[in-house]
Specification:
about 160 residues; mainly alpha; Serum Albumin, Chain A, Domain 1; 9 helices; flat; Nucleolar protein 56; snoRNA binding
Length: about 160
């Protein structure tokens, strides 16, 4: 999607409807010219999520997946810290939507999932910051701690 859009910034600027049909421009313009049906999906059609959906739900999943791809590209492009938390949560939401369409289990609301993702991202950022501060404090202290951990593991192995 990024290579077809040109860059991550360009992809982030596209609305979800454009992301959905990205790669099917030829079919879109042909449909508009002949007043036929417009394509439901472009490059997104090759996703495993759409492949797992039932035939009647492929258009719905395509629209939902394009929405989540659009959100993910905006988060990746405009956030200061690179993190995988949001992508993982968005993927979980797509999985929940597939289960909802197949079985009827109610998926979580987007606002709840994003609040969880923000909390988790903050935790990871704090953890990363602490590691960096510990590394800056002194490598000698860090080496002593690592040696102590290694010795403890050896003792456990000897007991077995």
């Amino acid at each position: 999607l990024i290579s077809h859009a040109g860059s991550l910034t360009n992809l982030a600027k596209y609305p979800a409807s454009t992301v959905q049909i990205l790669g099917a421009e030829k079919a879109l313009f042909r449909a508009l010219k002949t007043k036929g049906n417009t394509p439901k999906y472009g490059l997104i059609f090759h996703s495993t999520f759409i492949g797992r959906a039932q035939l009647k739900n492929k258009g719905r999943i395509s629209r939902y997946l394009a929405n989540k791809c659009s959100l993910a590209s905006r988060i990746d492009n405009f956030s200061d810290e690179a993190t995988t938390v949001f992508g993982e949560k968005l993927r979980d939401q797509v999985e929940e939507r597939l289960a909802f369409l197949a079985e009827g289990t109610t998926p979580r609301k987007n606002i709840e999932v994003m609040q969880e993702a923000i909390k988790e991202a903050k935790k990871r950022f704090k953890k990363k910051k602490k590691k960096e501060e510990a590394a800056a404090a002194g490598l000698a202290e860090g080496e002593i701690v690592e040696e102590g951990v290694v010795e403890k593991k050896k003792k456990k192995k000897d007991k077995k």
